[in-house]
Amino acid sequence: MLQKLFKLKEHKTNVRTEIVAGIITFLTMSYILVVNPNILSQAGMDRAALFTATAIASVAGTLFMALIPNLPIAQAPGMGLNSFFAFSVVLGLGYSWQMALTAVFIEGIIFLVLTACNIREMIVNTIPKSIKDAIPVGIGLFIALIGMQNAGLIVKNSNTMVSMGSMSDPHIWVALLGLAVTAVLFIKNVHGSFLIGIIASTIFAVFLGLVKLPEEGIFSLPPDISPVFMSFEWKHLFSLDMLIVVFTFLFVNLFDTIGTLLGVASKANLLDEEGNFPQIKKALFADALGTTVGAILGTSTVTSFVESTSGVASGGRTGLTSLSTAMMFALSLLFAPLFLMVPAAATAPALIIVGLFMISSVLKINFNDLSESFPAFLTIVMMPFSFSIANGIVFGMLSFVILKALSSRVRQISLTMWVIFTLFIVKLTLEGMNIL
């Protein structure tokens, strides 16, 4: 049955290879079970309930990716998108997390419609290759910045905007230990190096008295999900505020998800010679379903994970790899006390190293052509410097159109790019008028 469902022989693989690859993928991305609750809880959400929501949403999203496009790509609440949810929409703009969750659900439904109409696929295929290559790099730097902040290595400074944290902070030492352990184990090709690094850091944090061992033991039923489950705020459904938040999520999620998916596909060698992703429509449909179900469960946008490349590198080629990963996420629900005791500093090394993995796409950018390299450069630097993935894509695509048009290369600009350019100009103009 597995052979027929996942076409194993056609992809030159077998059940054992796929299952092992799926387990390896889980080990390299299991940190999300700790990191996502830590980030979203800063918006006022229940951290224990978020663990359950994160695990179940990861199971659902990964199963969608396994069964619809038959790809070895796992899904979970996305890094960057969860930060945008907590730090930009809730803490930055001042909206409630219930309203933000409602916006995620609405944009998930809209994305299902856009995917069915091939609009998202058209946008993906229209993005210039230089910007496609730059997006993973910018996201990597953005994620690494978040990791350094969680570690206490980077702190806010009124004089220089940011500065290095004090080495007297024990959380920094917890993060540095985890970074060293994770990096060394990864160099030695030890599977599960991320998880081992998190465990080592957490043990060190316990030794320093920063966290306490769970009194209820390491094994228990998963925490109650009801504090976040379907916690929608419909009273503002037709308000201008909801329109603004939904539009913002649509904008960020559209390009953030596309960027991450292209980054994963590139690492997994799933792109064709022109940089397009043949399975993009089915993958985007699975992504849209994951986002919608994730919002119902009570978590931020569910998306594809770059760590899926670890399973691909181990031989994973089909959705059976994703199915194996989903089953591991399901088992993790029984070990909630262990995951919930992990401090943010212990997961910081995983974020920093994930950032490293994603910046390697910079090698694909043509730096000999300024009309290609400058838009890519703006895409990369604007993400961490403006603390916004969407801003990086906006400035990258705007500069691409402007440079190509003014350097007599108008033919290299597609009609869709002109439409996107116009929408970006309108958005920036409205923001300048304090309408958005």
Automatic annotation (TrEMBL):
GO molecular-function term, one example from the UniProt record: purine nucleobase transmembrane transporter activity
Domain of life: Bacteria
Membrane topology: Multi-pass membrane protein
Pfam families assigned to the protein according to its UniProt record, in alphabetical order: Xan_ur_permease
Ranges annotated as spanning the membrane: 20-36, 48-68, 135-155, 170-187, 194-213, 242-264, 284-306, 318-340, 347-365, 377-403, 415-435
InterPro entries: Azg-like, Azg-like_bact_archaea, NCS2
Keywords: Cell membrane, Membrane, Transmembrane, Transmembrane helix, Transport
Cellular-component GO terms for this entry: plasma membrane
Subcellular location: Cell membrane
Family designation: Belongs to the nucleobase:cation symporter-2 (NCS2) (TC 2.A.40) family. Azg-like subfamily.
Protein name: NCS2 family permease
Taxonomic lineage from the root: Bacteria, Pseudomonadati, Bacteroidota, Bacteroidia, Bacteroidales
